[in-house]
TrEMBL record:
Transmembrane segments: 192-211
Membrane topology according to the record: Single-pass membrane protein
Protein name per its UniProtKB record: SH3 type 3 domain-containing protein
Entry keywords, A to Z: Coiled coil, Membrane, Signal, Transmembrane, Transmembrane helix
Native source organism of the sequence: Spiribacter salinus M19-40
UniProt keyword Membrane present: yes
Amino acid sequence: MQRLAGAVGAVLLAGVIGSVGVQNLASAQTTAYVTDELEITLRSGQGNDYRIVRLLRSGSELEVLERSETWTRVRAFGDEGWVRNVYLQSEPGAAEQLAAATEEAAALRQENRELSEALDDAKTRLEELRATRAELDEVNTRMRQRLQEAGEGLELADENQALRKEVVDLERQVQDLGRENERITDRGRRDWFIAGAGVIVAGMLLGIGLTRIRWRRRGGSWGDL
């Protein structure tokens, strides 16, 4: 008697659980999943005496078409049939969730490796760019020094050219002064020569004149004698 009561209680409990499962399915979307049982049957009608259409493994995704109190009509892999509600749940099974999580974790690890490699490449590229920047700065500094030296050299060249021109002008002036000095010297010599010749001629004329005067005086004296 106690065993019979226990069996009845178990049946009632299963019924309550089944009704709760149906209510949960009723509030779910149009997708359901087979629970973590190994395999269930997809039957052509609502009962175990109906023909088995196919077997469904746990985690199979089913398209919900219609619901009743204990059965749900679904479409799976192109076939339609009925499945007991107690074998359905609104989320994938633990194995499928674990597989999905494992796959996602593997994808995340791969993405992490790719990001790490990309980060390493970026760091290497950054170091190369820094080295290139340092080389460019050094080249720029050398170019500025060379430009400054070239500018100073151009200034010295311009100054040297100006000095050379000034020297040429001074040489020309010296040559002009030399020629002028020669002209003045030649003129002075000529003037002195003319002056000296004039003095000599004047002296000769004066001597001739004085001689004549003396002769005249002597001639008068002789006549008186």
